[in-house]
């Protein structure tokens, strides 16, 4: 997690600039001349995301019905991985969400968003299907001298249950349950601008000359040797914080926009997307009166983590099936042989 305390960087820059010109900085900390302006992040999304869940476990079984009437049978659902989410919020930023489990999978999101310690903050919300949204809080008061953190833990493990199916007369039902887990990462980037919102007369840190300046971010008083009692003021604009000078190193992943006196901050959001389904049940029904494949049918059922049925698909006779069903047929046969 990258923490960018703008006031700390401004203070460090101003002290380095004052010493550069032979001055003695004040013992007090630099201050914002007025509340800085921070732009809403401009997000850059991938052109297209391909989100495919991957298999994390399977179970299989069968139910032969030799009677002349239909019989119900239950398929036990026991999710093979225990998942716990931890969401941390720092100064208004929903900074990370990670899920730990015994298979060491990474579900959820891991957001590398700079914590910009000025009034205002951002909340990042990731929804299924690679929809990334953000809300901007412009009236939030932030304590520049400390970091406020809040962590919330939640249990995401699907509960144990059973799914009931009906087996026709004189038919054998063979089933396989496929459990799905994490998905590939999607990288999203954002650009945020910070601009000083003050004006006044003070020393320009690039020239050492006193002049009238606009878009001032912060100031720091200083004195000069041999001029006791006389105070000077060093001023810095936001874009100057991106420049390295002796005694000062700029924040990571920033650049300057001199035309607007803006400090441009680049952010990364790495999203490990969660599919909207948790497991799939594939059932093959085989008529016990015949041995021909004409009497074998496949059915596919897809459920979310709350065990709600999302998709119910009848594939039909294997001689009438498509490639998708063929793949599942081969899969179930290899598992149950």
TrEMBL record:
Domain of life: Bacteria
Protein name: Crystal protein ET84
Region of interest (Disordered), ranges: 137-167
């Amino acid at each position: 997690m990258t923490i960018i305390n703008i006031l700390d960087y401004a203070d460090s820059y101003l002290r380095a600039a004052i010493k550069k010109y032979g001055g003695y900085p004040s013992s007090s900390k630099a201050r914002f001349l007025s509340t800085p302006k921070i732009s809403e992040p401009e997000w850059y999304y991938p052109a297209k995301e391909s989100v495919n869940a991957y298999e994390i476990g399977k179970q299989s079984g069968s139910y032969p019905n030799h009677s002349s009437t239909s019989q119900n049978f239950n398929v036990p659902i026991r999710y093979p991985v225990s998942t716990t989410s931890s969401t941390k919020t720092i100064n208004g930023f929903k900074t990370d969400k990670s899920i730990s489990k015994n298979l060491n999978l990474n579900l959820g999101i891991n957001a590398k968003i700079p914590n910009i310690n000025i009034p205002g903050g951002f909340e990042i919300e990731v929804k299924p299907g690679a929809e990334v949204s953000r809300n901007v809080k412009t009236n939030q008061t932030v304590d520049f001298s400390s970091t406020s953190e809040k962590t919330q833990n939640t249990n995401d493990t699907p509960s144990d249950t059973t799914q009931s199916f009906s087996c026709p007369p004189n038919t054998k039902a063979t089933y396989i349950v496929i459990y799905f887990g994490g998905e590939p990462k999607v990288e999203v980037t954002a650009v945020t601008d910070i601009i000083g919102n003050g004006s006044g007369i003070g020393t320009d840190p690039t020239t050492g000359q006193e002049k009238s300046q606009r878009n001032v971010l912060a100031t720091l008083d200083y004195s000069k040797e041999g001029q006791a009692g006389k105070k000077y003021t060093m001023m810095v604009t936001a874009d100057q914080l991106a420049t390295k000078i002796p005694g000062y190193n700029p924040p990571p992943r920033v650049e300057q926009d001199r035309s607007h006196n803006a400090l441009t901050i680049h952010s990364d959001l790495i999203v490990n997307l969660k599919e909207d389904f948790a497991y799939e049940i594939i059932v093959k029904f085989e008529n016990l009166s015949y041995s021909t494949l004409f009497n074998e049918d496949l059915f596919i059922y897809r459920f979310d983590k709350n065990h709600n049925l999302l998709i119910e698909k009848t594939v039909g006779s294997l001689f009438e099936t498509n490639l998708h069903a063929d793949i599942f047929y081969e899969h179930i046969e290899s598992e149950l042989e």
